[in-house]
Amino acid sequence: MNQEIAKDAHDEMRESIINAATQIFTRFGFKKTSMDDIAKSLRMGKSSIYYYFKGKEEIFQAVVDKEADQLRLKVNKILSSNDDTMSKLRSYVKLRMDLIKQLSNYMEILKNDDLMNLTLTEKIRKKYDDEEVTIIKRILEEGNEKGLFKVKDLNLSSLAVVVAMKGLEVPLVTSTMGVESLNIVIDDLLDILFYGIVKR
Q: Domain containing 23: what range?
């Protein structure tokens, strides 16, 4: 019982650190944020933070994981819905591109090569890239089974969709594009995916 209470207290403190760090990273970015900044925001000593995390990189990774979890929850709702397959794919792409502007720390790890240890950066990127390919593959596979799509190579096609979305990330984040304009861009992208560029 005492061990469970201690574990709950430990988990709560980790969550508090992650929440505080999220705000600081969002405001100042990874490079300009220090362990002192995080500790001060929690009114803790820096040494106390090290009891829960090895360092700033590990805290940032936890922040990114939490932001990515928000995306996963909403994605799972789309995948489990009764919408037709094309609607699911449109909904997923629109959700992802809309949230990417809000999940600033998640976005930073995806686009910044000089953020932290490059090996760790690539490891995190690969994790989320693989997840996205799996999500798209699941949608395309469902479309094949229902006779809506005729995708011969699910792996290659899924990767192509993810690469196309990633190509829009930086222009999206750095622009003042509104929701309506974003939807038009995404619809054009998906029309190319669904119908190609050849006049029929």
A: 1-53
